[in-house]
Amino acid sequence: MREERNQERLSRKEAAANTWRAVKIWRKAAPELFLSMVVGSAVSRLAPYVPLYFTAQLINEIAGGRDPQRVWALLVALLGASAASGLLAQGAMRWSNVITDVKAGNVFDKIVLEKLLSMDYCHIDDPSTGELLNRIKHDRYWSAWGLDKVYFSLRYMLQHIFTILGAAALSVSLFLLPVPGGRSLVWLNHPACSLGMVVLLVLTVLLSSLLFNKGTSYWARYDGAKGNREFGFFYFAAHVERFRGADIRTYEQDAFIREKVLRLGQLGDFAPKSEIGRDARGEMGLYIAASEAVSRAFTGVIYLYVGLKDLGGAFGIGSVTQYVGALAGLASGVSGLLKELGGLRENAEYLRTTYQFLDIPNSMYQGSLTTEKRNDRKYEIEFRDVSFQYPGTDVWALRSLNVKFQVGGRLAVVGENGSGKTTFIKLLCRLYDPTEGTILLNGIDIRKYRYDDYLALFSVVFQDFRLLAQPLGQNVAASEKYDRQRAEDCLEKAGFGPQLRNLPEGLDTCLYREFEDNGVEISGGEAQKIALARVLYRDAPFIVLDEPTAALDPEAEAEIYTKFDEIVTDKTAIYISHRLSSCRFCDEIAVFENGRVVQQGTHDNLLAQEGKYSSLWTAQAQYYQKKGEEDGEEF
Ligand code: ADP
């Protein structure tokens, strides 16, 4: 349960640097927050002192001079000032809260989104990036640790500072007003006495805050996110999707869930016997209780000091309220400030994880050549001795690959699962750079081209492509604004025409029901066709289809083949499949095995040779024949 970050604790200087960097991130992301923070804190924290001051004056007058006119004037002033300052304080706080909700609420998400959108793909694909992001989110949900904490702490610190300023202004006269001469309490006038009081104030506040910070620092050691997740998982079991109501009933999971909930209550991360429970009863609880005791004892000393000065006649009885209120405010302001500073010190450790994520470098070299948007689409791609290992592994996913293809051709990439076909495509589309060797476009290393320019040459349907829960037309165009006629034509070509005509709102029909009640749920085959339409809409010179027919029924698959030439036209098509029968129509077939191209040629050529292709073909033919006989079909 103790957090295992395996990292040394930051020095104070490093912690301060981490926090300062977060402040700069906030300032850049939402500069207007700082103004609202200052104004909101100043008004809301200074306002309560106004009635305190007038109350003291009023009581002094009632207990002292008793001039009815002055009493009335003070009463009116008190009421007016209370109403006005209260209104102002509420208004300022509300304004500041609204700005916080609107502006600060999604700053974290925006920063993370921006980073993810601009990150080199190899880091997105890297599991450690996901783990880092999960860690950051857990810390955030657990106790707002990380970037959020800095904003909220700054806000609270400003509020404490204004509390201190107001309190100091109202309590300064306590130390300056002397007990009149001749009285027994004149020793209170001695500067050492006032100084002693101030020193005592500072020391007790420091001690109380230190004890409190020590107590609360225990929280930073727990990974409460796991406890929260477990709690949510089982307590909300009956109404979240992770547990299906039907499963709960058919497997009698109700007893299982009840037992888990009972066990969580007894042994979970927040149970009395857990580490948090033990610490709360033990050291952590003691530190926090001691901090409270010190601050209460200090309140007693304030009362004594103020009371004695009043007894000595230094000021009227009304001022007692003022001084006690102001000094209590001063103490709470200073200790609040120190607590926030302590919290920021702990938070700096969490910020380290945030920065590890934000500082993931974009190391892919970006060239400056343009790919010349050629009308004749004369492009030639060559893999020259390309080898590749996925980052963090020492296995060659591709080894010494030499492949060349020109625009207009139909290249099939076949091979068993895990033979490197998808990796080949990822390299071709420059999602990764080769570990060894070069990929050339028209004889020039693809790294020398502008990245966006190069990517624009490809339209890909990956095996695990995703469509968005957005209108159909926007999915096809991958954009909000698009050419409707073109989108319809592309859907028609991809074989989605009949379904499109049946959709209630045509291109505006939302896919899936995540956001729209009248969205449509589509089958895997329909999704494939829409993905194919997206490829066509993009109109890039290279079309890459990774197992495009895997989710299609035989009829739809046949439909795509017969239309393939019409779909691909003069573009280059690279067609990946482990089903050899799907690739017969291609001009050239590259056979992958263990990351290498072991054979290359036309279907007839390859079949005539002894080798991987013919053995795969025979094995698959037998399977399909058998299946065909069972289904009453011919292979
Ligand atoms: P295919 O498309 O032919 O099924 P892949 O190109 O997906 O094969 O995989 C080739 C090899 O690379 C396999 O051994 C696979 O386990 C490995 N591999 C694929 N993706 C990753 C990844 N993101 N990280 C590490 N290894 C991977």
Plain-language structure description:
With 635 residues, this protein is α/β, with parallel strands linked by helices. Helices cover 59% and strands 9% of the residues. A six-stranded mixed beta sheet has the order 6-7-8-3-9-10, sandwiched between helices. Strand 7, helix 22 (554-568) and strand 8 (572-577) form a beta-alpha-beta unit. Bound molecules: adenosine-5'-diphosphate (ADP).
Give a quick set of tags describing it.
4-stranded antiparallel β-sheet; 10 strands; 6-stranded mixed β-sheet; binds adenosine-5'-diphosphate; 635 residues; 24 helices; disordered N terminus; alpha/beta
Quick structural overview:
By secondary structure, the protein is α/β, with parallel strands linked by helices.
Fraction of residues in helices? 55-70%
Task: Give me the number of helical elements.
Answer: 24
Order of strands in the sheet with most strands: 6-7-8-3-9-10
Sheet-strand content, in percent, reads 5-15%
Which cofactors or ions or other ligands sit in this model?
Answer: adenosine-5'-diphosphate
Overall mean pLDDT = 84
Main sheet attributes: strand count, strand direction, barrel closure: 6 strands, mixed
Helix-strand makeup class:
alpha/beta
Give the uncertain stretches in residue-range form: 1-5
- End-to-end Cα distance, whole Å, is 59 Å
Mind telling me the C-alpha Rg? 36 Å
Number of strands: 10
